[in-house]
């Protein structure tokens, strides 16, 4: 059991001991950090994971609230019943389904200021790669896609992107163990997407974004043996078939 899993189990016990019900607020972050013996970043990752599953609601400036009652019939009442592999596959499927649509929409609406911010974000990603900081590559990539959502002018889409990316994208954990050409292709996708947005080409932006997340899926499937969802599997197979036809 990982430290995060142990903290999740402890949190379930805290909720039971305090007899918290749906709508009740969890203890403050500082207190939970001490109770669970985790860092603030780990705690926030746990709470965002629970929020993504609809178990809690995080209200900035107010706290974290239970959305459902927690049963005491289970050893670990906050068990998400998701294997790590399935959680990763679900996260990537959601990104593959939603992000291309958001990028297409942003191509029509995004303003010059946000385009300049995306350009700077691309520079930051490049620097993070040079510094070999996987954490910063992930952080800047998240900022990149969040800025695209901001460019749509739709706050709900922004929150959707934040929700999808509330858990760390596992592909970035071994970013620097990828082949150089794989890393370069991922970075190149950011640049291509920026060009598509500047060109106001929604179809191009959608295609690049879809290929970006399919690339992530393939890497995780090949390197980490993560079994992808049927939708992603079919999409990868269709892309392979298309590549074969193009080279025939």
Task: Describe how the helices and strands are arranged.
Elements: H1 3-17, H2 29-36, H3 40-52, E1 56-59, E2 63-66, H4 84-109, H5 112-130, H6 134-150, H7 155-164, H8 180-198, H9 202-224, H10 230-247
Antiparallel strand pairs: 1-2
Structure in a nutshell:
The chain is mainly α. The protein contains ten helices and two strands, in the order H-H-H-E-E-H-H-H-H-H-H-H.
Topology pattern, helix = H, strand = E? HHHEEHHHHHHH
- On the 0 to 100 scale, the average pLDDT is 85
User: What's the shape?
Assistant: globular
> β content, as a range?
under 5%
Helix proportion: 55-70%
Structural class: mainly alpha
Task: Return Rg in Å.
Answer: 20 Å
- Counted beta strands: 2
Let me know the largest β-sheet: 2 strands, antiparallel
Number of helices: 10
Spatial strand arrangement across the major sheet? 1-2
Low-confidence stretches: none
Comma- or semicolon-separated keywords:
mainly alpha, single chain, 248 residues
Structural summary, described in words:
α4 runs parallel beside α8 (180-198). The chain has helices spanning 3-17, 29-36, 40-52, 84-109, 112-130, 134-150, 155-164, 180-198, 202-224, 230-247, and strands at 56-59, 63-66. The protein has a two-stranded antiparallel ribbon. The longest helix is centred in the middle third of the chain and has 26 residues, at 84-109. The mean pLDDT is 85. The protein contains ten helices and two strands, in the order αααββααααααα. It is 68% helix and 3% strand. By secondary structure, the chain is mainly alpha-helical.
């Amino acid at each position: 059991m990982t430290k995060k899993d142990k903290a999740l189990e402890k949190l379930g016990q805290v909720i039971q001991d305090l007899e918290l019900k749906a709508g009740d607020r969890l203890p403050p972050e500082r207190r939970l950090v001490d109770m669970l013996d985790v860092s603030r970043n780990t705690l926030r990752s746990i709470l965002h994971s629970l929020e993504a599953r609809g178990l809690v609601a995080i209200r900035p400036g107010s706290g974290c609230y239970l959305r459902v009652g927690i049963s005491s019939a289970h050893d670990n009442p906050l068990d998400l019943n998701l294997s790590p592999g399935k959680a990763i596959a679900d996260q990537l499927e959601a990104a593959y389904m939603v992000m291309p649509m958001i990028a297409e929409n942003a191509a029509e609406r995004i303003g010059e200021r946000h385009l300049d911010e995306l350009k700077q974000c691309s520079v930051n990603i490049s620097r993070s790669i040079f510094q070999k900081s996987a954490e910063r590559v992930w952080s800047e990539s998240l900022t990149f896609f969040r800025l695209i959502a901001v460019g749509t002018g739709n706050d709900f889409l922004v929150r959707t992107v934040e929700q999808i990316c509330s858990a760390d994208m596992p592909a970035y954990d071994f970013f620097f163990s990828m082949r150089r050409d794989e890393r370069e292709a991922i970075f190149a996708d950011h640049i291509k997407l920026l060009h598509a947005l500047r060109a106001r080409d929604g179809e191009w932006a959608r295609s690049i974004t879809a290929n970006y997340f399919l690339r992530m899926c393939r890497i995780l499937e090949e390197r980490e043996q993560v079994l992808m969802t049927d939708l992603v599997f079919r999409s990868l197979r269709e892309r392979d078939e298309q590549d074969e036809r193009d080279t025939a």
